Amino acid sequence: MANFDKLTAAQIATGVSAGAFSAEDVARAALDAIAARDGSVSAFLQVTPEAALEAARATDAARARGEKLGPLAGVPVAVKDNMNQVGTRTTCASRMLENYESPYTATCVQRLIDAGATPVGKTNMDEFAFGSSTETSAFARTNNPWDTGRVPGGSSGGSAAAVAAGEVPLSLGSDTGGSIRQPAALCGVFGMKPTYGVVSRYGVVAFGSSLDQVGPFGRTVEDVALGMNALVAGGSDPLDSTSQPCGTDFLGCLDQGVEGARVGVIPQLLDAEGLSPEVAAAVRGAADKLEAAGAEIVEVELPHMDAAIAAYYVIGPAEAFSNLARFDGVRYGYQEPGCATLAEQSSLSRAHGFGIEAKRRQMLGAYLLSSGVYDEYYFAAQKARTLITGDYRRAFERADVLLMPAAPRAAWRFGEISDPTQMYLSDVFTVPINIAGNGGISVPLGLGADSGLPVAAQLVAPSFGDAALIRFAAALERACGAASVAPACAGKGGELK
After folding, report:
1. For tag attachment on the chain, is the N or C end more exposed, with fewer CB atoms within 10 Å?
2. Single pTM value for the model
């Protein structure tokens, strides 16, 4: 007998392809793990056992016919509930889309399925991805598997928690201002946001169209690389005008090492207000480990980083207001009953269909795009974006990657942060690269000396230099060890017989 939660995605794909166990065995083990653990974690909004078993049996049948299986053969995957998948609801964790049936499958989801993955369900999130803790979901509170009284981060908290709990080895999230990297940091797993345009956004419900990017979570760098290979297979997506060809074999970067490479550190970030001492110490320790592996540590500057949060909370809400205007209570989504006029129906449908944070972001966006305000704030935010992008470009003239915190602190308790402004600052280290468009990866560094909870560092690479993220993350993984299943969930269900 082998415990499912101790098998990586790479090990599952190898085992299924070799006939060591069947894809159906793996699918049933994953479904058992979800049934046993998700009552305390609540990572999933929808579990799809029929679709999972159908996909698994198709994989087993293909092997029986002697066909070559895909690189994710039999690997159970979960996807964030803002990604369309035929046969599921795509709710964005909002009452507005509570009963919305996916009419098609998002390109990113389809590419995992085409690679042989077994889709097991849709994961919880902050409503329309507006949040940093998964507390704004209209349907459930996802708990951090390391301590169920604490947040998993957000907005992709369900996808991070599902991997950390050992329910699935691989999941997808979306990252608009840190929504992959921050929950990965709080849940102690790897989470990668590729360069903007590397992964197709077709079929993903938009938050900020110039900021959003899809990426994978995994408990090992190899699994993240495996997921990235599947996401970029087939090149650019003609259904997404921002999609760009990648052409990188991410698995080929795992063993390249970092000897002679340059790692940039930003001294002012490690002394930043709000950064916990245990995270600062862990990031400094990560720099030491990379130096011991042969890398050169250099100091660089990002002089306009302080403007990133301000710019993000102009650009993001403005784009969110534009994207969510389509939910008008007429064409699809929640419709308020008993309204006498079209105007009343639209107004009440939006008032009752959206939660508090979704309303806050849209109202802010409406204000920022209004006459007179637009020139003062939106143009200034775009100018700041240009300056921030230039800062990163100059930093990468001196360094191959940058090393910085992923989240300013370990996971906090539910209800501990009630001020929206303070919640927004939990993404202070992740927002800038969404502004600039660069790729980044959150790397678990073990447990904090004070909290006993996961702490992490973030690696940032030049645009379309995402291979470096895997290369350097693999070096840190070798030095720190791979992420593990959270102890509260280890051993609860999911055995392979």
Report:
1. N
2. 0.96
